[in-house]
Write a structure and sequence with these properties.
Helices cover 64% and strands 4% of the residues. By secondary structure, it is mainly alpha-helical. It is globular and about 85 Å long. The strands form 2 sheets. It has a 5-stranded mixed beta sheet with strand order 4-3-5-7-6, covered by helices on one side. Strands 1-2 form a two-stranded antiparallel ribbon. Helix 2 packs antiparallel against helix 5 and helix 3 packs across helix 4.
Amino acid sequence: MTLDIIDAEPAESLWDRRDIAIVLLLVGLMAALYLRRIGDYGLWDFWEPKYAQAVREMTARGDYITPYFDGEIRWTKPILIYWLILVPVSFLGNNELAARLPSACAAIACVVVIYMMVRRLVNRRTAIMTACVLATLPQFCFLARQAVPDMVLTACLGATMAFAALGRFSQTRNRLWFVLAYTALALAFLAKGPVAGAITVGAMMLFLMLDFPWSRLSTPRSALTELLSIVRQYHMVVGAVVFTLVAAPWYVAMLIEHQQEYIDQFLGYENVQRFTGNVRGHRGLADFYVRTMFHGFFPWGSMLPVALIMYFRNHEKRDETFLLRWYFLSWFLAIFLIFTMSGTKIQHYIAPILPSTAIIIGMLWGRVMQRDTPHWCMAAFLPAIPLAYIPVRDFIKESDKYVLFNFTNSYSLYDLDVSPFLQYILLVWVLAMAVAAVMKRFRTAAVIAVGAAACYGGYFSQVVIPHQSPYRSLKSYVDTHRDHAVAGDKIIHVGSYRRYSMNYYLDNNYIHIDDDDLNDVMVMVDEHSRVSIVVDERRLRSLKDLLEHHTRQEWFTIATRHNRTDMITNIQKEVPLF
């Protein structure tokens, strides 16, 4: 890139040809990371199959307001993710590609919006680095390839804060930016509920701590005047109308149809109780999301502590530049504090913090790549070397579990050693930091750093995720059953937890029996002469012995690669899957 592209200052024009070229390059990178092979592997338990199956049941019922799963109302999430999946399903069919496509598109849109906002308010150099950081964050790459609402929420909240920033800090102060911000906020409400409002209000309250003229609140009249000024400045009346028109109809329709049950289940249990208490055993200590950011944001996360420390250096004066930085930091802090205080903690809940994290790290890179590079650059980059080593050490020491632990669940990787690749990434990262700190070749270091992060994102999304699919989905069992089943054959799942991929791939046409009720299995076997049983590994031996004693026939174990379950059958023509 030429220096005029890198060092361009903030611009009031939305796009020029260079920005269009940069965005196209970014979209190409993201398409390679998020879309390639996105439909080649089964939907992962426990979340993905629920959304795809709910869309199937929604279509079958002709009810596009109330989501159902396995014949029961699914209160967990609002409607937007189901509507978005329904669009590609209508022309691609209900499959893995269609289910995951909305998340991938939301991720791409999020990066483009963040680039546009940073380009307009800061400069092109910082915008490029911010977009590259965001696009290659491992957790961002992962959620872009999952049929869950978290990426849609992240994109909508990112757009909310980005458009609000454009409305507040652009010289023109165009009301259209606020209209777009309130629209995006309404969509965030439809993506995951009131948490979107809590994050936005929390971020704006933190921002107004410095932006609001507190010194003028000497009398009730002056206080009222200033409050009305804030209402006008942020176009809250127009925003309330826009928000109501977009978000309220679905909530009102659900309230009318389900009344008190909707209040108790969706608002009470799925929102209030998730924050105030522990739901379904998802808990964690105060450092839960600190560890998540170190591991889920590798290798960029190693720069975050220093970026935060250096964030306001040389910006002591509370001018518009200082306030813009405080706005981005308020965005980051509100999300971190809200989810840290929440009683229910899951790794991907913190996903809405990804855009603000990328901006903070991008601001550091943008500052050091200026021609008058400040003298503290060495102090900013050298600590990133040992900090990057911490997650790599944990990857190796803890059987690689952190690769997935900080994205969706606590399962380790199976039959795959990622340690050599992680060590190569770490070596390249060390090279980038050394080039930056010692040689002060910051543009060269930026290219190396982005390349390392993109390679890690590509390796994770193109190799690790597809390789782990047989351990995260029971699709292979369903395919085996279908290949050898005839009319009347039955498939049963015996386990303490339901495997929802069976709901999706069998369209609920199977039976789940708790592993403490093995006598119920005997009843089903007596009623059906040909049965395939998916059973949790810890119950395999006892169930097989019980079946052979009860039926006086041999039961065959099908060797598969799933980490926690096996499949047995009395269909004698069955052959091993692997």
